[in-house]
Write a structure and sequence with these properties.
- With 292 residues, this protein is of the alpha/beta class.
- It has two domains: 46 residues, no CATH class; 225 residues, Zn peptidases (Aminopeptidase).
- It is 33% helix and 20% strand.
- It has seven helices and twelve strands.
- Helix 5 links the parallel strand 10 and strand 11.
- The longest helix has 26 residues.
- The radius of gyration is 29 Å and the shape is globular.
- The N and C termini lie far apart (90 Å).
């Protein structure tokens, strides 16, 4: 009997040891998440780079294309980003949709150049390009209706600098919206400016041929004057202290000036030609101005 009890005890001990070994092995097996399985093939998660918190002074990689917001008509407004420098420069085209298609074309050519030549954006600079702020107007064609968004608002009368519900375009009255930033396009740009805090901004319009400084009736800042002169000299456009052909209310670059951003309006000579070589030279000079 004593030998039988000894044998049973030994068997029990062996069973316990075997159980413990199996349990330890099971705990060391990594079960992949559902999204790492493709056709029953397990993806090696060790090869996936997981973002970590940035060290002090380190700059996160820029996202090349993101959604700025949605238009009044439900169309996406996109922004293309290049570089990772601390000096953010904002470029905006298509404020007036298809009525001034060359303003979108020059922004799209800039995007293509930055994509094909990464050296175009120098160290120290992050370039943000919104090719079409008004996709509703772009969809409406080149008639005067293409200047406005789906709510019939002139976006360049909807910003918070001397805003009025009824603005002027040349000699006709246009809607400035129900209040400053009532339009989702203007509100999206406001949020983006607040997020990136650009050191400079260039907004394209048509058609008068020139580079115009911004101010919100408080004078042109020294930074804006420098920006105006640099762009004008490189592009061979004439520089102007302000746009004074007729009264402007709710203007985008004047609002940026109110927010402390050096901002200029570049008005091309007509409504069709992007005058690419002139504007490429002007943009290159601005990027160099803020390079490090």
């Amino acid at each position: 009997m004593k030998n039988i009890a000894l044998i049973l005890g030994l068997i029990l001990l062996i069973g316990i040891v075997a159980f413990m070994l199996l349990r330890t092995s099971a705990e060391n097996v990594t079960v992949p998440a559902d999204d790492t399985l493709i056709d029953d093939v397990v993806v090696d998660t060790d090869e996936i780079e997981i973002p970590t918190e940035l060290e002090e002074g380190e700059v996160a990689p820029a996202l090349p294309v993101t959604e700025l917001g949605m238009s009044a008509g439900g169309r996406p407004i996109m922004v293309h980003t290049f570089g990772t420098g601390r000096n953010d420069i904002l470029i905006v085209g298509g404020m007036h949709g298809a009525y001034a298609p060359n303003t979108t074309e020059v922004a799209e050519r800039l995007i293509a150049l930055a994509e094909s030549d990464p050296q175009f954006v120098p160290a120290g600079v992050t370039l943000h390009v919104v090719p079409t702020l008004n996709p509703d107007g772009a969809a409406l064609g080149t008639t005067p209706a293409g200047r406005f968004n789906a709510n019939g608002v002139d976006l360049n009368r909807n910003f918070d600098c001397e805003w009025q519900a009824e603005g002027i375009w040349q000699s006709q009255a246009v809607s400035g919206g129900s209040e400053p930033f009532s339009e989702p396009e203007a509100a999206a740009l406001r949020s983006y400016v607040a997020a990136i805090e650009p050191v400079a901004a260039v907004v394209y319009y048509s058609a008068a041929g020139g580079v115009y400084s911004s101010n919100c009736r408080n004078g042109v800042s020294a930074e804006t004057k420098t920006l105006t002169d640099v762009y004008a000299q490189a592009s061979d456009y004439a520089p102007f202290a302000e746009f004074d052909f007729y009264a402007i209310t709710g203007d985008a670059v004047n609002w940026m000036a109110k927010e402390g951003v050096a901002a200029i309006s570049v008005l091309m000579t007509d409504y069709t030609s992007p005058e690419w070589e002139k504007n490429r030279a002007g943009l290159a000079a601005v990027l160099e101005l803020y390079a490090e």
